[in-house]
Sequence to fold (1616 residues):
Amino acid sequence: MSDVKKVVLAYSGGLDTSVILKWLRETYNCEVVTFTADLGQGEELEPARQKALLMGVKPENIFIDDLREEFVADYVFPMMRANALYEGLYLLGTSIARPLIAKRQIEIAAKVGADAVSHGATGKGNDQVRFELGYYALNPDIKVIAPWREWDLTSRTRLIEYAEAHQIPVPKDKRGEAPFSTDANLLHTSSEGKVLEDPWEEVPDYVFSRTVNPEDAPDTPEIITIDFERGDAIAVNGEALSPASLLARLNDLGRTHGIGRLDLVENRFVGMKSRGMYETPGGTILHLAHRAIEQITLDRGAAHLKDELAPRYAELIYNGFWFSPEREMLQAAIDHSQAKVAGTVRLKLYKGGVHVIGRKSPHSLYSEKVVTFEDDAGAYDQRDAAGFIKLNALRLRLLGRRDR
Amino acid sequence: MSDVKKVVLAYSGGLDTSVILKWLRETYNCEVVTFTADLGQGEELEPARQKALLMGVKPENIFIDDLREEFVADYVFPMMRANALYEGLYLLGTSIARPLIAKRQIEIAAKVGADAVSHGATGKGNDQVRFELGYYALNPDIKVIAPWREWDLTSRTRLIEYAEAHQIPVPKDKRGEAPFSTDANLLHTSSEGKVLEDPWEEVPDYVFSRTVNPEDAPDTPEIITIDFERGDAIAVNGEALSPASLLARLNDLGRTHGIGRLDLVENRFVGMKSRGMYETPGGTILHLAHRAIEQITLDRGAAHLKDELAPRYAELIYNGFWFSPEREMLQAAIDHSQAKVAGTVRLKLYKGGVHVIGRKSPHSLYSEKVVTFEDDAGAYDQRDAAGFIKLNALRLRLLGRRDR
Amino acid sequence: MSDVKKVVLAYSGGLDTSVILKWLRETYNCEVVTFTADLGQGEELEPARQKALLMGVKPENIFIDDLREEFVADYVFPMMRANALYEGLYLLGTSIARPLIAKRQIEIAAKVGADAVSHGATGKGNDQVRFELGYYALNPDIKVIAPWREWDLTSRTRLIEYAEAHQIPVPKDKRGEAPFSTDANLLHTSSEGKVLEDPWEEVPDYVFSRTVNPEDAPDTPEIITIDFERGDAIAVNGEALSPASLLARLNDLGRTHGIGRLDLVENRFVGMKSRGMYETPGGTILHLAHRAIEQITLDRGAAHLKDELAPRYAELIYNGFWFSPEREMLQAAIDHSQAKVAGTVRLKLYKGGVHVIGRKSPHSLYSEKVVTFEDDAGAYDQRDAAGFIKLNALRLRLLGRRDR
Amino acid sequence: MSDVKKVVLAYSGGLDTSVILKWLRETYNCEVVTFTADLGQGEELEPARQKALLMGVKPENIFIDDLREEFVADYVFPMMRANALYEGLYLLGTSIARPLIAKRQIEIAAKVGADAVSHGATGKGNDQVRFELGYYALNPDIKVIAPWREWDLTSRTRLIEYAEAHQIPVPKDKRGEAPFSTDANLLHTSSEGKVLEDPWEEVPDYVFSRTVNPEDAPDTPEIITIDFERGDAIAVNGEALSPASLLARLNDLGRTHGIGRLDLVENRFVGMKSRGMYETPGGTILHLAHRAIEQITLDRGAAHLKDELAPRYAELIYNGFWFSPEREMLQAAIDHSQAKVAGTVRLKLYKGGVHVIGRKSPHSLYSEKVVTFEDDAGAYDQRDAAGFIKLNALRLRLLGRRDR
Fold:
């Protein structure tokens, strides 16, 4: 066991991280600094401060930050520019939050002179990897403590026994095992484990917390517009909004119309398959709107290159490599393409569906004059197509002659 | 103008290809063989025979083939195995039909000793490319006649004048210009041009022909199952169906629930952007179901490689390179991955949405024993994750040390 | 034939472009502006001016530019950062020069108010595409005249007859057909056609002009060093040199030691295979030296991403898409990786071979402390490898269990 | 420590694996089965049998197999079809041998009823990963013992002490530390560590064992031919040879002419950079010859797709994922392309260099008729290029109009 003097713990104030707080002090005999971030998970942060104080954390060792704007502007939006989908479907809501938490922990560690950081992610999941790759990338010499991989509290019963033995208050609803495990931030809420573990069984309705059931959504569609500038959304229904406010607004719209539920069996970086339920109401709207504005503002070459790079980019984020040279290289390529991705998208929200119904842009590359079925006044010479096809066919003809 | 003796024309029986039939004979003084395919476009084929006879085509020169099963089994299904989406959204319904028509024309040309083939696609679109790359790949020495690129009938008015001057019956509804242009087969119906040419304007409701408006779809969701074997769908709701019958069944379900409408601005191979409306009811269900069955039966390495190859594969089909070595190479890779893609997917259809709610397989790679949040009895050793992370982080740490 | 008032011709002063000059005036009855670039092809430029004057071009319509530094700094070096090789072997010496010539022609056209540009590339090759894609990208409305695709001078005999009929001096050695066709600039000399057209026949020795035969090279190896900064070479043997001077120095070294000959059958963008002989003496050394300095300064993630992107990047340059969004996106990614690609590479030149024998860098990521076979004092914990392997193996084990 | 009854050890007969043999018995109190493979490493195998007997291994537990033909036919050749180069330069000579050894160990384990396998690779290298991923893929339930990660013999001194204490003969030259570490098989010899650990220092001449120094190679070039069939080499200088004999023949030629030396700093899968020296005499010739025969027999679409897939394919082999679905998928794609890769390549070997000087094939796609600078009698219509360029330029022109 390595020697640790001061550790910065990602602390939610809940039972698990409270037990970790205690266990760190007991096990490492070290000072614990707590860090609690507001990423839009929808919980009050002050109770976390009170709990930390009650646990004996010194006031100057309690850090509570509102990271919502940074989260959306510097993490969610760059990822949205890429149209990233993990395994074709997942909008990466958990993955994209971890690097920011890791970065802030390392910054606090530098500030308070801590030599270690710690998190509450288990040894089976992806989050441990995302946290720790972030830690190591930003401070190669930091010590990392992952209690779930180290301690012997291998069941919830033992965790609660430990809590009771150490005067850690155990909320009533934690006595029985929770029926599933969740993570939440401004982009999404995820649920996995337990009642969700059989991928043949439908997800029970009580698992959802961020969206109404599409069947209960309004019977009347709602039409909205989103404005974009340089690839980022800047306004909803004509109202300019900060990144976090904008995503919150779309979340409200998405919640109402039952948008963004995803039942997925995915491949974890650690090598197993898991089944999760994701709710990404605003993000789902944003993703489709971004694709729509790109349709008229992005050149084909740029668009197709982006499509080919996107699976790799998504994989990097999922696997925890946000702070890696290759993610940054891909980001540089993607961002280069977004200079003129600007304009307005019109969407219809209805019963769980997001339907793009119109898009316009001052930078549109769509040319009605060229594409028209009507007389195009010479904008396009149809005879050019003959040569185009002949030369595209040439290698196939040479091949055909050989292989007949 | 090259010397042509006998030409095989892709003939629908409609006004345009009837004018082409006449024009070919007049211009090239050649014998015309008509080929009409049933690809599930939902039109009677016998009228095409009658029209061809009326136009003076010899009975032995009239070919009418039901290609529905071949179309689905050998073109749609292989493409579905790839999860191919052009520009992230489009299921390639038009693109995938052209190679089969081209192949059949070349076969008929060989049979009847024709030295040329002809089609009715315009000089602005992708279809001319798809037809002609197919022709040339399968018979490098065939002559290709693309009337729309050659003749001077550059407006509908002139086309109708030509028809009337040559005793070709002009249907009443063709007198006025059609408000949009369509293509249909068992996989989809596309609509483009004219009233759709402003991508900011919502597609009028009368454009849709294959699906009800989601707002008019039943208020009660419908649960269905699809069974897969070796990557292909084989049964709906437990009933084994041939490929074409299965797709037809899914089309019925999709139509009822308003599934598979897509409003897209896409990049054509010939270099311009165009706006299209696609209806792919059954294909949309199939696409999502196939992804779902892959989720539990495909290894991560195979799945991610497929995701990286899919945009290129889709582009090849869109651009008309079905009969190319590179499409075949990608198909070989994709097909290799599908041996165990088998099992059953449960889906909920509701108001335009397709929601996967369950999947199971005799070949499932999902292991509840390994993934469980409960005690896993040693199936997974959480301490392994420490070394896994440490070595994945090593290069990032060396980098961090250098760059600080 | 479109109406042309003033045309900027890429003019070498040789027979072909002199005939073109005359033909342009005769055919289009337009003013001709000549542009002659020094790209390091090793020819005097003043004779081109004299010839243009003799042909009646007004002095103010004669442009002669030394573009060597711009060529190497802004075209060759960015490409070298990518380690670009077309079809695994070719250093793209011709391809990379065309965009610069095109750009300069468009700039001159803007300056002199010309409405057209023209070049001397034939209708079978890649260069016409590279020139014209450059023209159109930089000025979408420019008129392009490609005489070889338009005129009826389809043989050298007819070209010479035309020249004689128009008082254009025909050099003695042009009377007989040249035994092969060449292109040259500071990066390379290419030779193709005629005596080279049978790919089974060895290239005759008289084809080579830029390198000695390896068999005639010195019997003693020469050791050199190249210094890099931000991915670009900045010094040879410790002497700081401008980009063009540096490449010239490496060309001298390469020439002496018979380095950089390549006999290649390649795939042209227009669809046919052609056989070419390339001499890229300095570029070959530079390419290998750049790879060597990247070996110690580039992170694995960045290096492997670059390797995967390089074939596409090379294809874009070969096909003439230098001024395309997708090439620029890839360049942004590549350039992002080069910030710390700095240091010194030691190479041995011998009888046609370039052998990297050492590399060092202030930004080296190579850690003898970590890699050593000796006791590493805890820099690396071998037990970490157990977990690393176990989790990398997990999916393969689950697969193996299923498939046994 | 897990319970082990019988273990199959990859046994060379050298000091290290002899110590491992002893240590396994002592530590696990288990029966040890030795497996020694002839992969063309150029050592006698019978001494290994004698040593195993002397160490007390039962005769029926000693397995010695000549795997040379299987190695070349089923591992080296498939990899050569891909033109695989790790990090642009390395022919993967060590990586490609490990899966075969692993496969044979698992087969022997099944035969003798062993529950474990073991190897002598250290905890810092790639080979442990390659062995163990192979083991686990082929038998997910096998136990794996990696002594170098488990024991406390952390220096050579302690290893020798252990050997002496256990009556294991220590060769004289092992008393002092070897100046570098090697691996050899029919494809290559690698050397790394110790005197090679400073990547700025030239590799000393005594490190090389498979090739003469190019400076000592014959002053006269040697011309050879290699025949290919379905992508594999089948004859040298017209003489048909089995895969292993053919590679051995090319090794002799390469040795004589000093071909295939590579000084590389590479990125290991475990996260560090290492410097190695590789000698791949025959493989280097084969690699270039294969590219040359592909030049005239492979279509551009197939060739470029191969070039884009090759880095990933090489990475998979390097990282030990030979027995993975994604490597097999890529192999399926690659093999699909090789049906007509047949013909003869002529090469000149001289002073370390391999120069392709000619290639011919009954399946050549090279068409002198089409490519010729002379009159091509209509094989290619240069005017087609105009339309080809116009449509390739269309999107760039629309972009240019927008962005000016």
Chain B has two domains: 6-66+95-178, 185-360. The interface with chain D takes residues 267, 270-273, 298-299, 301-302, 304-306, 312, 321, 324-326, 328-330, 332-337, 391-395, 398 of chain B (CB under 8 Å). The longest strand of chain B covers residues 31-38. Residues 6-66+95-178 of chain B form a domain with the Rossmann fold fold (CATH 3.40.50.620).
